[in-house]
Structure formats: C-alpha cells, structure tokens
Amino acid sequence: MSKIIHFYFDFISPFAYFSWRKLPLLAKKYNYKIECHPVVFGKLLDKWGQLGPAEIPSKRNWLYQYCIRYATINGFKYNPPKKHPFNPLPALRMSLKEVSGKDQTKVIDTIFNKGWSNGNDLGDISTLVTILEKESLDGLSFSRHILKPEIKKLLIEETNMAIEKGVFGVPSFIINDNLFWGNDQMEHIELLLAGNDPLDKEKLNVFLNRPRAIDREMIKK
Q1: The domain containing residue 161 runs over which residues?
Q2: Range 93-129 burial, b when 16+ CB lie within 10 A, else e
Q3: What is the pLDDT along the chain (221 residues), one digit of tens a residue?
Q4: What is the DSSP letter of 217?
Q5: Which helix (H) or strand (E) holds 5?
Q6: 172 pairs with which residues across the strands?
Q7: Cβ–Cβ under 8 Å, residues 101 and 108
Q8: CATH of the domain at 32
Q9: HSE, side-chain direction, 13 A CA sphere, residue 103
Q10: Whole-structure pTM over 0.90, yes or no?
C-alpha cells in the first residue's frame, strides 16, 4: 500500500483551508506523503449537477456562521477573502507543481492563510504576487507561467482526473482508493492512517446494492 494522501482542493472553499491546517501534521504523524491536486470546484459542481454553498442564500448565511464558530473553537483567526466568490483560476494555476515546483506546499499554505485568515483578494493576480513575494516566493515568475496555454491545460486535466476518480467536492482526500470528503473527515482519515478503519466493506456493499424506491423527479408528479 502506498503511503500517499491525495489532497484535492480549491482555494474558494473555506473547508479546504480548514482541512489544510490539520493535514500536514497528520501526514507527518503517520509518515505519509501529501500529493496536492488543485481542481476547479465549479467544474465539479457542473459535472455532478450541484450548486455551490455561495449560490444558495440561506446556505451561504449558514456557511459563514459555521466558519466563525469553527475558527473560534479551534483558536485561529478567520477573516475571509475580500471578495467571495472570486475567480480561483490564477491561484490554482500558481499552486500547480509544474508552476511552483519545490515550493508548492509553501505556495498553497500562503494563499490559503493570506486569503482565509487575512482577508486578501485571492482573485486578484497582483495581490497573489504580493502575498507570495512577502514570503520570499517568486510570485512574479509564477504569474507569468500561469498565462501559458499548457499550464491552463494542466489545471483542466487535474480537474478531469479528479472527476474520473469520483471526486465531487472539496476538500477531498483519496488514500489507497478510499475517498473522503469534507474537513469533518479528519478523524476518520486518522483512523485509516493508524490502521483502525472501522468501515465494514461487506456491509457497505449490501447497502450500495439496495434498490432505489423513487427518484426525486417522480416526487414532483
């Protein structure tokens, strides 16, 4: 079994930020490597026919209440991006390994932190350059790379590969073919990493094979 945690994220999601705050320490504790996969959340929503939380007014209100409570309980500063939702494509492209190279983890950490704890506009390229360069990262060079067609294509490919693996939202984690979704899955992920996964796969298969009684469309009739 490979000791790799595949982390699928979009900077537009506060839940992705929350999970990122815990993931590196968890991976280190169990000697796992993290492979980071920036993906376009909007494309996942389109594929699976969903709306994002910010597109449902009452859910958006709930979201910010949850985030304030979560940050307070967990003892860190919560100050979301200046504008939300924002265009995440420049930030996602900068966080591709082919752009950020050996600094990928630091780039991801900086963008998440400066956006969700310090209120920076993550949809503005000049802001991204500034916050990265303040952390001794070559933001200007990154901003030039992300304009290349091959880099834009790489992000599309990352998103499509995630969809092929069944990823439907962010944050998502794949560990030895086990898919986890959401920042509230960290406890379950740790159980798996520790070799104590309580999932009964035979029982799971029984439940998955139960027949459907009705589809939503039928309820309307």
Answers
A1: 4-219
A2: bbbbbebbeebbeebbbbbbbbbbbeebbbbbbebbb
A3: 789 999 999 999 999 999 999 999 999 999 999 999 999 999 999 999 999 998 999 999 999 999 999 999 999 999 999 999 999 999 999 999 999 999 999 999 999 999 999 999 999 999 999 999 999 999 999 999 999 999 999 999 999 999 999 999 999 999 999 999 999 999 999 999 999 999 999 999 999 999 988 877 666 65
A4: H
A5: strand 4-9
A6: 8, 181
A7: no
A8: 3.40.30.10
A9: 15
A10: yes
Can you tell me which residue has the tokens 């900086």? Answer: 110
Across the beta sheet with 172-175, the strand order is 33-38, 4-9, 172-175, 178-181
Q: How many domains does the chain have?
A: 1
Stated length of the chain: 221
φ and ψ at 18, to 5 degrees? -60, -45
Distance of CA 118 to the CA centre of its chain: 18
| 33 vs 31: CA distance, rounded Å | 7
